[in-house]
Design goal:
Distance between the termini: 46 Å
Strand order of the largest sheet: 1-2-14-11-16-9-6-3
Pfam families: 2OG-FeII_Oxy, DIOX_N
Structural class: alpha+beta
Protein name: Fe2OG dioxygenase domain-containing protein
InterPro entries: DIOX_N, IPNS-like_FE2OG_OXY, IPNS-like_sf, Iron_ascorbate_oxido_reductase, Oxoglu/Fe-dep_dioxygenase_dom
Number of helices: 6
Bound molecules: 2-oxoglutaric acid, fe (ii) ion
Largest sheet: 8 strands, mixed
Strand content: 15-25%
Helix content: 10-25%
GO molecular function: metal ion binding; oxidoreductase activity
Order of helices and strands: EHEHHEEEEEEHEEEEEEHEEEEH
Keywords: Iron, Metal-binding, Oxidoreductase
Length: 343
Amino acid sequence: MAEVDVAFIQEPVHRPNPSLRQEADGIPLIDLSAPDFDALISDIGHACRQWGFFQIINHGVPPERLQKLEAAARKFFHLSLDEKRKVSRGGLDKVMGYYNTEHTKNVRDWKEVFDYTVKEPTLAYASLDEDDDTVAYWENQWPENPPELREFCQEYATEMVALAMRLLELVAMSLGLPPGRFEDFFKDHTSMVRLNCYPSCPSPDLALGVGPHKDPGVLTILAQDDVGGLEVKRKSDGQWVGVKPVPNAYIINLGDILQVWTNDVYESVEHRVVVNSVKERYSVPFFLNPSHYTMVAPLEEMTDEPNPAKYAPYNWGKFQLTRKQSNFMKLQVENIQISHFKN
Ligand SMILES: O=C(O)CCC(=O)C(=O)O
Ligand SMILES: [Fe+2]
């Protein structure tokens, strides 16, 4: 008999095999302070094409920002469930906050989460109805305890936005585009930060911290602690490989929107999180997302007659809201994906 609730149990094909666990040495490690700028752009282009994932060092974010945030996150997740539920997510009017019931591909994730948006408030759609463009204001829910969490979260988010916009300039240049090519998409950006706590798990062979998925936004800047558990599906052979924790490094992965913008020249890559029976693990992803009214479509510069657009335009805000609603529950149907807009 499994020791975890049946809702957490992955289909056999998705179960991790701890004895086969590999660590990828191939994931590129990029030094953002490297003096040769052309080489930096070329390394980024290479990493985006080959992996869709890379780690960065010398990125300029002071390490204390993350240390303070992680310490406060630890205090928060160690509060009683009743206390944490005072800032619970729920429904279209409370999109941010705490929850422990997320499902990826209809299987419950072994994790607890606290979400907050960078912009306060964040402009979004009020309804899932395609024809209704009424605006909603997403508000963050800050817990009373620990009192420092709010300030540390906000400080951290500011750093992440600056770093993400710098990375996006490098990504644009790696595609031969002007550095500011993507800037206009972020005027009212809907970016968010997630504090993830993965408790130790009695059946790490049956459950996953996060099931296999691709990030729907533009790009993700992930901080992981020294426990490890993030795995990437290697593009060359489809093998799951672990991303080794590197002190003070951030992991960057491309999201679905960059895949669509580049018309599949760059691809967002599937990843998942394995848990372990001994240690709890913390991670902090920052998701860079465009303004809610953005119509996502392949860039003109990335398409021409022999190479037409591979995706029909879709509305980011509606897509995001649909995802947010459906990740709450076990659905009868597959969650919305960019493949649904493939021409
Ligand atoms: O915790 C991690 O390492 C990754 C989390 C993740 O992939 C996500 O939240 O989208
Ligand atoms: Fe992810």
